[in-house]
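Record ABC transporter permease, 228 aa.
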Amino acid sequence: MDAAFWERVVQTVSAMRGEIVQALWETFVMVGLSTTFAVLFGTVLGVALFVSGSRQLYYSRSVYFLLDNLVNLMRAFPFVILMIAMIPATRAIVGTTIGPVAASLVLSVSGMFYFARLVEQNLREVPRGVIEAAISMGATPADVIRKVLLNEARAGMVSSITVLAIGLLSYSAAAGMIGGGGLGDLAIRYGYYRYQTEMIVFIVAILVLLVILMQGSGNRLARKLDKR
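=>
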């Protein structure tokens, strides 16, 4: 890429700084809302998966079979098709199918099942002896879940949240294809349809920077919480 190309990048970014700031804000809204709801509901689902499994607190073969297959089904569902399939539900809940808040609903659903599997894996890493020791000391199942399992797995949970947030950031770019807004929508409208390659390069650079910042912050927090 020659000097003329980078000059065009600077000129394009300068001329569109208002739209870029708006798209960046829409991306933050999508990723922030969807990560929050995916973590909340995904944690509940992941804990239910773990405790209903073999040799666990609330072992139930039928419940685990149902939840396990539901998570597998939703994780295998292509994201773009899920967005289209959820249009009626999105319109009923949000009132519209366009914009970052509407896209956040689909992102939350997709991320929830992905995060549930990560939570289950994190809880499996908690030593069985720690759980048995808590039970022998009179801890209730609710106490074991809240004070032992989630507490012991907190470093891994932070790493999983980081992975989830980065994944939702990439999905938010796809959400822009069908009215979600954000950086992905800007790249498609200007970089693809108007052949402004410099806009695509700039948006990719922003996304790379966001991923680096998110991963670095998550790694630092996970190291602080890791008691090993």
